[in-house]
């Protein structure tokens, strides 16, 4: 009989410990689940930001390419002018040697 009495007293304490343990484990599982959801949210946010930066980088690279082409074009123009003066001995005539030719306008042609 004494064993039955001691088992009855231990059982409620054991049940209480099990209940508390299950509640703590359930709380840890819920906290872990919410942290996973939060980490996925942060990852997606960072990934969207990364893609925006990559698009901006591509746009800047395209603009850089256009600027390089423009620079080469202006460099070629200066090089052509330099070669024309040095190799072909071309020059711009002074204003005294410049002649302006004006074409008749349409109103004078109709008369």
From TrEMBL:
**Mind listing the UniProt keywords for this protein, alphabetically?**
Cell cycle, Cell division, Cell inner membrane, Cell membrane, Membrane, Transmembrane, Transmembrane helix
Q: Which residues cross the membrane?
A: 20-41
Q: Tell me which Pfam families the record gives.
A: FtsL (PF04999)
The annotated topology with respect to the bilayer is: Single-pass type II membrane protein
Record bears the keyword Hydrolase: no
Instruction: From the Swiss-Prot or TrEMBL record, state where the protein is found.
Output: Cell inner membrane; Cell membrane
Q: Which GO terms describe its cellular component?
A: cell division site; plasma membrane
Q: Is Membrane one of the keywords?
A: yes
Q: Which domain of life is it from?
A: Bacteria
Q: Per its UniProt record, what InterPro entries does this chain match?
A: Cell_div_FtsL
Q: Which GO terms describe its biological process?
A: FtsZ-dependent cytokinesis
Q: What is the role of this chain?
A: Essential cell division protein. May link together the upstream cell division proteins, which are predominantly cytoplasmic, with the downstream cell division proteins, which are predominantly periplasmic.
Enumerate the PANTHER family for this protein: CELL DIVISION PROTEIN FTSL
Protein family per UniProt? Belongs to the FtsL family.
Q: How does it assemble?
A: Part of a complex composed of FtsB, FtsL and FtsQ.
- Protein name listed in UniProt: Cell division protein FtsL
| Species for this entry | Acinetobacter shaoyimingii
Q: What is the lineage of its organism?
A: Bacteria, Pseudomonadati, Pseudomonadota, Gammaproteobacteria, Moraxellales
Gene this protein is translated from: ftsL
